[in-house]
Specification:
Elements: E1 2-6, H1 16-28, E2 33-36, H2 47-56, E3 62-69, H3 76-89, E4 94-99, H4 104-110, H5 117-134, E5 146-150, H6 154-163, E6 166-168, H7 174-190, E7 198-204, H8 211-222, H9 228-237, H10 242-254, E8 259-263, H11 270-279
Amino acid sequence: MDIAIGLPNAVPGTTGEQLTAWARRAEARGFSSLGTIDRIAYPNLEPLTSLAAAAAVTERIGLATTVLLGPLRVNAVALAKQVASLQAISGGRMTLGIGLGGREDDYEIAGVDTSTRGRDLDAMLARIEEVWEGKEMGPDHDPRPRVLIGGSVEASFKRAARFGDGWIAAGAPPDQFAEWRQGFEAAWREAGRSQQPQNAALTYFSLGDRAEEDARAYLTDYYAWLGEDTANFIAGSAAKDAETVKQYVEAFEGAGCQELYLFPSSSDPRQVDLLADAAGL
């Protein structure tokens, strides 16, 4: 299993200097990829912009939206060009992780209807593939960006089997990931896909002297929309010491995860080294 790390693009107050320092350290320490979290109604840095900054200061590490909220990007052709541009700029390191998201406020502030979002995303994915295959709107890069479709219900599994190279889970414990993976792989087989399906998972970490404080401050705020009890549970489940990081890595690997993204609760670039040490990189 590959071990990836999230950029702190969704941690409020993250600076450009912290973001690029984080990307450089992550590459130097051997992480497989850099992931990003997408929101509209939150003080985060936009994912594609953040990955462009990371691409400019790195050479080898993968770049991924984990995930981009597709229906909020209402022009499929423009999005296809943006992602293709990142693929070209980075020398072929881009993964488009894309899904629906679950927060009504993001859709409301963007003026996007939630009632048709599933159909809208299907149409968007089909159009993106047309743009990339047609190669008339450039920039052209071979291979095309990898596509992972996010979600945890049957419709998202079928969407991943139809449009994606694989599937990416929302944040969940390893046993839940394993159950969802089985659902996705069943949809993959039913769709007649012959190639090996790809997958990825997400979890949180917060290490060092401020581990508990940072996890509580960030995660309870980010997940406040789910209610206090759920937000506190998510903050409490973040890996806050090296032993828990190792346990999570082993558990997700045992659940069949191919690439695990660990997302931070702090934008301090020293978190990269703490996680690398804990994960044995």
